[in-house]
Task: structure prediction
Amino acid sequence: MPYGSYCTQIGPDGQGAMRCGPACVASVLLDDGWQSDPWQLTLQLEAQSDPQGDGTTSADLIRLANANGLDGRLWYGWPEADAALLAGEAVLVLCDNRYLTPRTYPPGASWEALHWVRCVVHSQRDDMLYLYDPLTYGAQLWGPPYQGPVASTVDGCTAAIQATAWPESGVILTSRLGHDLNAR
Result:
């Protein structure tokens, strides 16, 4: 695949707005075989969604995914998410990123909100999660910014999920084409 499946919500101007949900769905679409520039796909999906004052809801993401060839449903606990990952489904996590530990961006009001991330691996061996966090855009001394998976503890991610006011933990997306959305 010529494009990677990590999608950022941070634009060239350094602003991220409320693009985390569309960025996560864009990441899944790339893993479903879409051929597109990740940033352009994120902007396209942002234009298709209608986030309200608090951003994109689970229902918004399911509608967005359905309109673009994916099926979606809510998930409520890690056993559901683990089964989905093993089945090749994409797991999007709704969290309060103030509690997401560790995280790759600084504390501060402009970085703290309800936030969508994509869980790509749950390692039972070391109780870690590997996430695509659309806010990860770390400077590297030797070249382009790092954009890719970051590690979080299951406890840290669970605390971040529980800090939201929503009963669901996030959204699971399934390929209508039968693709394994976690085959990297």
User: Anything to note?
Assistant: The helical segments are 20-31, 38-48, 58-67, 78-86, 154-162. The beta strands are 70-75, 90-96, 114-123, 128-132, 138-140, 143-146, 149-153, 170-175. The chain has a mean pLDDT of 86. The chain is about 30% helix and 25% strand.
